[in-house]
Amino acid sequence: MENSLVFAKFWGWYLIIFFFVLSINPKRIRQIFDDLQDEKFLILSSFMAIMVGLINIMFHNVWELNYKLIITLIGWTSLFVGLALFVFPKPTVTWLRITNIKFVQVIYTLLFLIGLFLLNIVYGLIPY
After folding, report:
1. Of the candidates 81, 75, 82, which has an alpha carbon nearest to the alpha carbon of residue 59?
2. Which are the contacts of 28, defined by CB distance < 8 A and separation ≥ 6?
3. With CB atoms 3.0 to 4.6 Å apart as the test, which of 15, 36, 62, 87 could cross-link to 115 if both were Cys?
4. What pTM does this model have?
């Protein structure tokens, strides 16, 4: 299977699962922000984001104007957020804490739609 389809499947399922977990338990959003105050959690989270971003970029750094660009941008975003959390932890956590819960809900709803789009590319459920 082509790398793009593997990453589309991975990110599609990940984003949909992420959406349902946060929808069923919205207190989890606040808990994640609170946990970022713990340095151990912050370091672990930043390392994970950096690793996921690097893996995504190393195996899929495709800048075509289609679904492949979405996958590439997710990888770069993961890398930059992970680096920001690791290199500048206090300013990044402060910036993240300022964001409103409603804004976060809008973002993860948008990510849910991106996940549906990526899974539709892989499985071809709705032709367009």
Report:
1. 75
2. 21, 22
3. 15
4. 0.89
Q: Is the pLDDT reported for residue 106 higher than 90?
A: no
For residue 108, what pLDDT is reported? 86
* Continuous H helices in 1-128: 3-24, 27-35, 39-59, 67-87, 89-98, 101-123
Does residue 128 lie within any of the structural domains? no
**Both tokens assigned to 43:** 């370091």
Asked whether the beta carbons of 81 and 104 are under 8 A apart, the reply is no
Average pLDDT over residues 7-24: 94
Domain extent for 62 = 3-122
Q: How many domains does the chain have?
A: 1
Q: How far apart are CA 36 and CA 56, in angstroms?
A: 24
Whole-number Cα distances in Å, 119 to 4, 8, 82: 12, 7, 25
Q: What is the distance between the alpha carbons of residues 20 and 28, in angstroms, rounded to a whole number?
A: 11
In-domain check, residue 110:
yes
85 within domain boundaries: yes
* Residue 75 located in a structural domain: yes
